[in-house]
Amino acid sequence: MNSFRFSIYGLLLLLLANCANTSSLKKDKALTIVNFSKQTELDLEFELQNIPHPEKVEILLLDSLQLKTLPKNCVLFKNLKHISLAYNPNLDFNNAFELLKNLPLEFLNLKGNDLKILPKNIAKLQSITDLNIAYNKLQNEVNYTRLAALKNLSELWLDHNELYEVPKTIGKLDQIIRLYIDNNFLTTLAPEMKNMKKLRVLHAGFNQLNSFPEVFIEMPGLILAHLNNNRIQSFPKIYETKKYSLKGLILDNNPIPKEEIDWAKKEFSAFFLLSFQQKK
To answer: What pTM was computed for the model?
Structure first.
């Protein structure tokens, strides 16, 4: 069941996203979370310098601060595992990654930064296991070649990236276990995804897929696929004769004809999850 876990740091990010705009800085010896997100008129370098016990800080949230450079004293947080730099589109990410490269980061949030090309030195963040690059414009194939260098990366958010096709180089991401490519404009999934041997959970809802992907047959690790809110109307009948690892499907809100649903329910009858719910 470990493959279906949610990232602890990703969950914390979701919870903290609902916090008030005021700082959640706690001035005590047990400090593990510092949140400066959305604060105005903030001297970030000064504030970071005056945090007590920086070695105890594990989560640092710096969203929506109009940052241009990351303060050098970020390196004081020697045990930092999670940093969120979302919605800072003018930030020098090349410089930021150089500062962060020696920290034990596991979760990095770069959401909403209008990124088109990831800096090459993102490969220096070798401890990263979870990366949120949603709400960017990462259509260029070189981005996925660079992400392939993050050998510990297991969970990747690519939703809301204005993708009209899955870049062919995504097949290089053979280390990924959970992939989120929902809320794009995809009509098909790239055949090169068959090289993602470790992928177990795929979220590809809210796209424009018009047929059930045949590539799933060639993905030996895939167990669960979320394909809700697409335009799927049919299933390739090759699934009747080929073996596949898939055991769970969410196909809610697709215009699938009744005869195709009946076929799928019979073919996928052993699945632990099979959903065709429609909006009322």
So the answer is: 0.89
Spatial contact of 74 and 34, defined as CB atoms under 8 Å apart: no
Distance of CA 65 to the CA centre of its chain: 22
Cα–chain-centroid distance for residue 259?
35
Largest distance between two CA atoms of the chain: 66
Nearest to 236 by CA among 214, 257, 262: 214
pLDDT per residue as tens digits for the range 70-84: 999 999 999 999 999
Q: Tokens 């632990």 map to which residue?
A: 272
248 beta partners: 224, 273
